Amino acid sequence: MPEETPVQAKFALQRIYTKDVSFESPASPVIFTKAWKPKIQVDLNTRSKAVADNTFEVVLTVTITAKLEDDETAFLVEIHQAGLFVAEGIEGEQLRQLLGIACPNMLFPYLREAVDALVVKGGFPALALQPVNFEALYRQAEEAQAARQAETAAATTH
């Protein structure tokens, strides 16, 4: 009986692309006459889905709102930076970590550059997003999900 050859794990980036881009500056041009001391709020999310056998789309989404002291919105940027990845011979938790940590790490520099370019083209000073620890975010999301499941289990048994 011939021995089965173990499947070699394979991970590859197929394509990086921009899925959606939005830039709004609702208070322009008046906003340019005001002192530039914005409060910047950054909301970052990731999601992934299978699109074919062993092929996954990962989307890194950022929404950035810059408001001045009078709570007036200077600009709002939203970008969905996506990538198509092939993962063969990788399953379960290892696959979830790949899609939730490694893939967003690959997409982040492209997202960061797109944010900066849009903000500058909108007439505002450059905005460089700080590096993100996707492993820590992944672990936090796992812990939050485990806590929700424990609460649900406790609520249904009482």
From TrEMBL:
This is Protein-export protein SecB. One of its GO terms (molecular function) is unfolded protein binding. It comes from the Bacteria. GO terms for biological process: protein folding; protein tetramerization; protein transport. InterPro entries: SecB (IPR003708), SecB-like_sf (IPR035958). One of the proteins required for the normal export of preproteins out of the cell cytoplasm. It is a molecular chaperone that binds to a subset of precursor proteins, maintaining them in a translocation-competent state. It also specifically binds to its receptor SecA. Homotetramer, a dimer of dimers. One homotetramer interacts with 1 SecA dimer. GO terms for cellular component: cytoplasm. The keyword Membrane does not apply. It is found in: Cytoplasm. It holds the Pfam family SecB. Keywords: Chaperone, Cytoplasm, Protein transport, Translocation, Transport. Signal peptide: none annotated. NCBIfam families: PRK05751.1-4, secB. HAMAP family: SecB.
